[in-house]
Amino acid sequence: MNCEIIAVGSEMLTPQRVDTNSLWLTDQLNTLGVEVTAKAIVGDDRARLADVLRGSLRRADLVLLSGGLGPTEDDITRDSVAEVLGRGQHFRPELLEAIAQRFRQLRRSMAENNKRQAYLIEGAEALANPRGTAPGQWIATADGRFIVLLPGPPHEIKDMYTEQIRPRLRQILPALHIGLRQFRVAGMGESDLDQLIAPVYMQYSQIATTVLAKPGDIQIHLRARMAHAAAAEAMLDELAAKIEELLGTRIYSRDGADLETSVGRLLAARGATVSVAESCTGGMLGQRFTSTPGSSAYFVGGFLTYTNAMKQALLGVKAELLAQHSAVSEQAAAAMARGAREHTGSSYALSVTGYAGPDGGTEQDPVGTIYLGLATPDGEAEVRRLQMIPGRERVRQMGATAALDMLRKRLIS
User: Fold this and answer.
1) Residues 320 and 356 in one domain
2) Domain around 196
3) Each residue of 30-49: pLDDT tens digit?
4) Mean pLDDT (the chain, rounded)
């Protein structure tokens, strides 16, 4: 079965709102073996929505619409779907009573226009909405397709899908085993990674391989949909083993955990701790560590030393060193890492200093240059220099990611 998702609402076409419902629904549908082949966002225009829905029904077995089921005049999903199907809408008193009961629970009075939500498209099954006032609708078409109308608020859509949509889909879907493998990789670019592994995964036509990339972090998803579980798992194991052999220690996670969580696990397993000294990243590295629950077991703390004066006062970096080599240098990165470790007593300490831009930089170290320092339990400090494509936020984010990966590699060496 393939599916198309249509998000309805003019607010979704503004820069202030993001359609997160379709992301969540895609993940849920994929676990059932349903492939989402297209998504659309349509404003509050009845004719335009009807046109988009007609196209989806020509292509997809299942069409999910989210939003546009409210009580106001710009909530046009019910009307558009009824128009496309050539069906009428019928007022259902029991739906109105459920809506009224919801208002009574909230100790609010129900407006007259809420009665619009009690109309059901001819032939549709009503889907109860215990978290909101808009009931959903499940519709089977004459040619064997399915249309599902869902409310827009995420907490409503999630409950309705889990309790009512998923059981219905399980009844109509063929028995299918979904096998999954995933890897997360750091330290290489998307094109380099795909050039390395594509000759292998292209040999497995029954496995869908997806490569997702963001600066400094790549995800590889392997998905097999087969009638027999043993066959799917065996094929996935075979491909996964070949990919692992090619990527080696570049793989930092096999269960979906992010880099900061993976590094935290390594520290915790060794009973080790870490501190940070940051300049150009402005606290991003510390934030990454502390975003993981339980990080207090291994993260000691950090220093945000954006100026030379703060590097001297908080980390003990000598003025002569800064004057001779500058704050963006191998020597400064090493001194910052050592200072953080000495002042906190942590097992390891990471430092980041560089030119994030748009200003700054030198002929030797232009904008985009980052120096990473790692102080270790033996009292030594290693330094890595990175030259990145300029772009302030990208440089800062990749600097934090590269620092985490630098520590990870040391911990597994």
Assistant:
1) yes
2) 177-253
3) 888 898 999 999 999 999 99
4) 94
Q: Does residue 228 sit in the same domain as residue 304?
A: no
Copy the structure tokens of residue 404.
Answer: 């985490």
362-375 pLDDT, tens digit each? 999 999 999 999 99
Same domain, 245 and 265: no
Task: Point out the domain boundary residue: 253, 287, 314.
Answer: 253
CATH number at residue 46: 3.40.980.10
Amino acid at 354: G
pLDDT band, residue 174 (cuts 50/70/90) = confident
Task: Say if residue 341 is in the same domain as residue 267.
Answer: yes
